[in-house]
Amino acid sequence: MEKAHKPKKVFIQGPISPDFVAKSIASHQSKTGIGAHAIFLGQIRADQKEGGPVTGIDYTAYEEMAEQAFYDIREAAFAKFELTCMHIYHSLGLVPTGEISLFVFVSSPHRRAAFEASEYIVEEIKANVPIFGKELIGEAGQHVWKENK
């Protein structure tokens, strides 16, 4: 029986900074059994909508349910792929265009598992985690609820 992994804090208030991403990568240099890392960064696009361009996304979530869903995805990924470690971070609150709102960092002894696990995790997050994004549009403060695609 696989051992369960300790739940980890996923949510970060506001954008995920490049410095945070860099420090996460650097902290794995001492883990010499790792042969591959796969990193997914979800960035806010300035899509053109009626009323102007998207200027940011304001994220909310059913946090307790979302944390459980993240934990379940994490456990399923560890069971399905040969992984050494995994980190998932998602923004809450306002994330302006050009900034990062999702950071998935997967480490494995071999590249194939890292690639496949990363894609699996991102698709599972999009399909199953109760996070909601309100796209802010133009200067007038209009908004529309974002669809997960």
Q: Can you describe this structure?
A:
There is one protein chain. By secondary structure, this protein is α+β, with helices and mostly antiparallel strands. The chain has one domain (13-145): Aldehyde Oxidoreductase, domain 3 (Alpha-Beta Complex), CATH 3.90.1170. Helix content is 30%, strand content 37%. It has helices spanning 18-26, 63-80, 111-128; strands at 11-13, 36-43, 48-49, 52-61, 85-96, 100-108, 131-137, 142-145. Strands 1, 2, 3, 4, 5, 6, 7 and 8 form an 8-stranded mixed sheet that branches. A hairpin with a 3-residue loop joins strand 5 and strand 6. Its EC number is 2.8.1.12. It is an enzyme of class 2 (transferase). This is Molybdopterin synthase catalytic subunit. Belongs to the MoaE family.
- As a whole number of angstroms, the C-alpha radius of gyration is 16 Å
Q: Sheet bearing the most strands, described? A: 8 strands, mixed
Structural class: alpha+beta
Q: Kindly give the count of domains.
A: 1
End-to-end CA span: 35 Å
Fraction of helical residues: 25-40%
CATH architecture call? Alpha-Beta Complex
Secondary-structure element series: EHEEEHEEHEE
Strand content: 35-45%
What would CATH call the class?
Alpha Beta
Which runs of at least 5 residues are low in confidence (pLDDT < 50)?
Answer: none
What is the tally of beta strands? 8
Shape descriptor reads elongated
Question: How many DSSP H or I helices?
Answer: 3
